[in-house]
C-alpha cells in the first residue's frame, strides 16, 4: 500500500531505532517531523474516531509539501497538529526539533485557513499588520506594504474585508500569514471556498510568491492540480484513518507557470495521483 | 401596488393613535376618575409648582439610575472577566447571577433600606437589575469570537490579554450594547422601585405619595415622566448599538 512512501518511513524508522536524543538523530534540515502519530477523538458514549493512525511525515527546510486526500481523511488534522492547536494521542510531532506550540509562541509560524478569518472591523492594511501587534512588536509598515504589493492588493489598503471578493480576502489572509517572514507556512485549503477560475489564478500567484521566499510549506488540499503545481512533494493519504499511501516527488522546474498544467508530464502525474485517490474511494 | 410609508412616519402614527386613545378614555371617563385625559396631565405639567416638583424628582431618579447603571456595568464586567480568565469560576458565577436575578427586586428593596440606607437603595436596586443583564451580555459577547478567529490568534502566538483586547472585546461590543439597551430601562425601573420604600426623593416617591393622596394628575405626570426617561435611555442605547454593529461586524 505504501509503495512510494519508503523514503519518509524508512528515514524515521531508522532514526527511531538509534534511540539517542531527538536533536542528534535527525538531519538538521528537517523542519517538520511527524513520527508514528495516532490521533483519535472521543465521540462520547465510549465511541472513538481515529483520524490518523501510525502517520509518518517529514518536511525538509525550504521544501513545499502538499497533503492530498479525500475529504475527512485527516489531512487537516495533520496541519492542526503541526500548529500545536491539537495534541497527538500518541507519537511525536516536532517542528524545528521542538514542540509545535513553541513556534507559534515565538511568532515564527504563518497559517492561512480555509475560512479567511480576517477581522471585519479592520482595514486590509491593519489585518495584514495584525501578527506584528499579536507579537507585541512595532508594525513594520514598509513590510506590510510590500506584502500588499506582493499579493496584488495595491489600492485596497483601506478597504474592509466585507468590501472584498472571496479571492481578495484569501490573498489578505496569505499576506497576513507571510508578514512576519515565518519559518514555517501552513496552508489549510486556503482556496477551497473559491470558484475554479479564481482558484487557478490564486495558485499561480501563490507559486510566484513562494518562488521569492522558499519558506518551508505544508499545504493541505483535495485539488490534485493545485498540489502538483505548487509542491516539491505530494503526499497522498488514505481514507480514515489517515495513513500515507504514496509520496510523489514533483521535480518539474520552477518557476512553474500556468501553462505547465497543459504539459504531458504534468498531466501524467495528475492522472496518476487522481487514480490513487479514486482507488481509495473504491476500497472505502 | 403597495405604498410604503417611511418608518418614522409609521412610528409617529402609532404613537399618535395611542395618545388619542388615552385621551378618549380620559374624556369619556369609561376607566373611572383615576384615568384623566392626557391634555389635562400635560396642562398640569405646565404649572410652575408641579413642574418644579416633577423635575426635582426626575433629576433624583435619573441620578440614582445613572449610578445604578454604572455600578451594575462595572460589577458585571469584573464578574465576566473573572469567568473568562478563570474558567473554574464560571459555573458558580453563572448560578450566582441567576439566583440574584430570581429574587424579585421588590422583595429586596425593603431589605436594602435597612442595610445600605434610604439614600442609596434606589441606585443599588437599579445596579442589581442592570448587573444581571450586563453579566449575561458580557459573558456571551466575550465568548462570541469564531473558532477560526481564535485559532488565528493562537497560531500567531497571541497572549491572552492581547486576544482579549484585540479579538474578544471588539467581537463583544455589539452584544454588550444590546445588553445596554435592555439594562438602561431596567436601571430606571430599578431606581423607581427602590424609591418606593422610603427614599427621600425621586419619581418613585412621587408616585407613591400621589397614589396615597389621590393626586391623580401628579400620579400620571410622574408615571409619564418615568416612562419617557426610560424610553429615552432605551433609544440612546439602541443608537449606540446600531453604530457598533456597523463598525464591528
Description of the structure:
By secondary structure, chain A is of the alpha/beta class. Helices cover 38% and strands 23% of the residues of chain A. Chain A has helices at 6-18, 75-83, 100-105, 124-134, 141-150, 166-178, 196-213, 224-230, 264-283, and strands at 30-44, 47-60, 64-68, 90-95, 109-112, 184-188, 216-221, 233-237, 244-249. A six-stranded mixed beta sheet of chain A has the order 5-6-7-3-8-9, with helices on both faces. Chain A has a three-stranded antiparallel beta sheet with strand order 2-1-4. In chain A, strand 8 and strand 9 form a beta hairpin. In chain A, helix 4 packs parallel to helix 6 (166-178) and helix 5 crosses helix 6 (166-178). Chain A starts with 5 loop residues before the first helix and ends with a helix. Chain B is mostly helical and 249 residues long. Chain B folds into two domains: 1-35; 37-248, MetI-like (MetI-like fold), CATH 1.10.3720.10. In chain B, helix 3 runs antiparallel to helix 8. The longest helix of chain B is centred in the N-terminal third of the chain and has 38 residues, at 48-85. Chain B starts with 6 loop residues before the first helix and ends with a helix. The relative contact order of chain B is 0.13. The interface between A and B is medium-sized, with 23 and 19 residues.
Amino acid at each position: 500500500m505504501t509503495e512510494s512512501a519508503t523514503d519518509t518511513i524508512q528515514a524515521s524508522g531508522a532514526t527511531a531505532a538509534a534511540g539517542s536524543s531527538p536533536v542528534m538523530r535527525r538531519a538538521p534540515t528537517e523542519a517538520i517531523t511527524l513520527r508514528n502519530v495516532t490521533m483519535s477523538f472521543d465521540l462520547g458514549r465510549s465511541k472513538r474516531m481515529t483520524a490518523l493512525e501510525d502517520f509518518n511525515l517529514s518536511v525538509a527546510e525550504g521544501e513545499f509539501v502538499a497533503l492530498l486526500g479525500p475529504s475527512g481523511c485527516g489531512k487537516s488534522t495533520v496541519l492542526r497538529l503541526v500548529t500545536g492547536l491539537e495534541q497527538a494521542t500518541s507519537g511525536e510531532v516536532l517542528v524545528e526539533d521542538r514542540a509545535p506550540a513553541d513556534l507559534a509562541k515565538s511568532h515564527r509560524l504563518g497559517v492561512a485557513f480555509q475560512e479567511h478569518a480576517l477581522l471585519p472591523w479592520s482595514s486590509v492594511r491593519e489585518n495584514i499588520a495584525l501578527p506584528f501587534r499579536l507579537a507585541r512588536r512595532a508594525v513594520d509598515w514598509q513590510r506590510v506594504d510590500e506584502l500588499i504589493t506582493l499579493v496584488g492588493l495595491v489600492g485596497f489598503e483601506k478597504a474592509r474585508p466585507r468590501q472584498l471578493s472571496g479571492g481578495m480576502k484569501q490573498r489578505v489572509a496569505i499576506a497576513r500569514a507571510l508578514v512576519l517572514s515565518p519559518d514555517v507556512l501552513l496552508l489549510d485549503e486556503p482556496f477551497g471556498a473559491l470558484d475554479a477560475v479564481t482558484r487557478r489564478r490564486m495558485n499561480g500567484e501563490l507559486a510566484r510568491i513562494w518562488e521569492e521566499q522558499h519558506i518551508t510549506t505544508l499545504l493541505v488540499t483535495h485539488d490534485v492540480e493545485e498540489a502538483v503545481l505548487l509542491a516539491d512533494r505530494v503526499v497522498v493519504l488514505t481514507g480514515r484513518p489517515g495513513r500515507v499511501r504514496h509520496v510523489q516527488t514533483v521535480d518539474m522546474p520552477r518557476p512553474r507557470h500556468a501553462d505547465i498544467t497543459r504539459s504531458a508530464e504534468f498531466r501524467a502525474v495528475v492522472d496518476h495521483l487522481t487514480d490513487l485517490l479514486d482507488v481509495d474511494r473504491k476500497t472505502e | 401596488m403597495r405604498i410604503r410609508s417611511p418608518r418614522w412616519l409609521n412610528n409617529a402614527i402609532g404613537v399618535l393613535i395611542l395618545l388619542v386613545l388615552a385621551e378618549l378614555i380620559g374624556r369619556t371617563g369609561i376607566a373611572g376618575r383615576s384615568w384623566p385625559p392626557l391634555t389635562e396631565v400635560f396642562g398640569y405639567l405646565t404649572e410652575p409648582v408641579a413642574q418644579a416638583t416633577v423635575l426635582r424628582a426626575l433629576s433624583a431618579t435619573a441620578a440614582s439610575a445613572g449610578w445604578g447603571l454604572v455600578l451594575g456595568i462595572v460589577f458585571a464586567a469584573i464578574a465576566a472577566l473573572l469567568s473568562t480568565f478563570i474558567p473554574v469560576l464560571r459555573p458558580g458565577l453563572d448560578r450566582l447571577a441567576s439566583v440574584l436575578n430570581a429574587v424579585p427586586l421588590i422583595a429586596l428593596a425593603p431589605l436594602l433600606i435597612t442595610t445600605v440606607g434610604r439614600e442609596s437603595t434606589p441606585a443599588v436596586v437599579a445596579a442589581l437589575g442592570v448587573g444581571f443583564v450586563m453579566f449575561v451580555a458580557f459573558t456571551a459577547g466575550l465568548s462570541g469570537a469564531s473558532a477560526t478567529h481564535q485559532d488565528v490568534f493562537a497560531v500567531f502566538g497571541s497572549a491572552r490579554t492581547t486576544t482579549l483586547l484585540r479579538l474578544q472585546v471588539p467581537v463583544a461590543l455589539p452584544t454588550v450594547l444590546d445588553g445596554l439597551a435592555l439594562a438602561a430601562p431596567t436601571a430606571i425601573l430599578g431606581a423607581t422601585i427602590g424609591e418606593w420604600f422610603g427614599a427621600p426623593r425621586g419619581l418613585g416617591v412621587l408616585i407613591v405619595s400621589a397614589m396615597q393622596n389621590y393626586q391623580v394628575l401628579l400620579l400620571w405626570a410622574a408615571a409619564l415622566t418615568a416612562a419617557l426617561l426610560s424610553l429615552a435611555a432605551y433609544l440612546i442605547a439602541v443608537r449606540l448599538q446600531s453604530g457598533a454593529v456597523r463598525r464591528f461586524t
